[in-house]
Each structure stands twice: as structure tokens, then as C-alpha cells.
Design goal:
Layout (H helix, E strand, L loop, with lengths): L1 E3 L7 E6 L2 E2 L1 H18 L3 E7 L4 E2 L1 H12 L7 E7 L3 H11 L6 E4 L4 H9 L9 E4 L4 E4 L7 H16 L6 E6 L8 H14 L5 E6 L3 H12 L3 E5 L4 H9 L20
Helix pairs in contact: 1-2, 5-6
Amino acid sequence: MIERLQDLPAGVEGVSAKGKVTAHDYRTTLWPLFEEAKRSGRHIRFLYHVATDAEFTAGAALEDARLGLGIGSLDALQRCALVSDARWIRAAASFFASIAPCPMRVFGEAEWSLATQWLVEVAATDRVPHEVLPELGVLVVRPQKKLDAEDIEAIDATVDAWRMTGGRLNGVIIHAATFPGWESLGSFFRHARFVREHRHQIRRLALVVDGKLPELVAVVAERLVKAEVKHFAYRDFSSAVDWIDSPPNTERSNGARDTKSAAAS
């Protein structure tokens, strides 16, 4: 069975799986929790306890894999802590943590307090530095560590707040000495989702980063967004701002995008 956990800290939801667990348990207890959160527009910090005596039917195992991959819960989960002493559960969770759509950690039965503490901690100071230049309508992101799903959510919230004031997002600048990449595959997919949702608004994307990786990212990015994409050397931040603020290049035909690296010039 799957039961809702009580007496959890404010902002934390949780369930406990014990005994025989079926797909019906997921459909009647777990998925409604996520669906209600999505309808209300809130994100869940989720504690998932699996007792050592839990036995999953084939249908339940499939539903559990869906949870690990974020299928059906992508919009609801903000953080997920799995608490269990079952070795196979811990091994499976360690795998899913690398591809989950949100930060995920595994704790033992004796680490409940650590699990809830991690779920409720305020990590705003750890989020990627970013800002909107209001006079230009340009989002500037300065990643200093690998991007995780919460970084993307923080950026998304900033952009939404800017748009609520009537602002328009004309361009994006990624400014870093080296591009750090993503914390996990799940973080990358959450980032791709953000790009997809805003692709019709962004006119130009400047990658102001040294190294060869940005050139590859530029090629990929131009296929994800309807925008001009250009790579600049890290020291050329002002040139990137001027480029985004300049009129569209009418000489290019059929909306061709300029992905030639300015760093190579």
C-alpha cells in the first residue's frame, strides 16, 4: 500500500510505500497529489519512503519508473528525497537521480531529519546569478556551477515576473569564463523545456563564453529557438550587448541565423 505521510514540515508532501504495492496505489494516492499540485500551480518538495518489506507488482514497478523519470510529475516536483534501507531501491534511485527532472537525493531510514532538512532548506543563495536588463529587455545568466533544475526554475520565475510588468524578452546572454554544463540529464531537459516555452519571444541569443563547447551549443541552440545565435569571447560582453540591441540584419535572407563564432575573429 501507499499512504500519505503526516506531520511533515510545511511545504513538504510525502508518502510511504509498504507491504504489497500495486499500480492502483499509485493511481489513487500518488498521482492525484501531483495532479492537484499542477492544477494549483505549486511545486512539491517530496519525501518518498519505501519500507524494506515493500513488494512492488509489475504494474507498480512501471509506475515507480514513471515517477523516477518525471513522467506525469515533471511540472510538480521541485525536490525529491527518497528514504529507504532497501538496497535495490537505493540502487535504482541512485540511477534515476542522474536523469530525474528535479534534484533528488537518497537517505537511509535513520536519516529522516536530514531528508526533511534538505527538502525545506532555502537554497536561493546557491541559485545561478541572473538578471534582466530592463532598458534592453535582455536576460543575462552567469552560471558558475553546473545548472540544476532549481536554477532553471529561478530563471523562469524572473522572466515571468518581468513579463508581468509588460516587459518583452528580446534576448539572452550566457556569460561565463567556461560553460559549466548541467548537473544531470534531467536538468538539461528542464532547461530545454524552458527554451522551448520562450523560443518565440527571444530574438537573439549570445553565448559569451570561452572554449569550443559554446560553438556546439550555438549550433544546437539555433535549432531549438527561433533566434539569431552568436558566440563571443568571454571578455566581449559589451559587444554582445551591442549586438543584441542592434537592428535586425536585413541582409540575411529567409531568417538565416549567424552562428559564426565572434571569438574566432
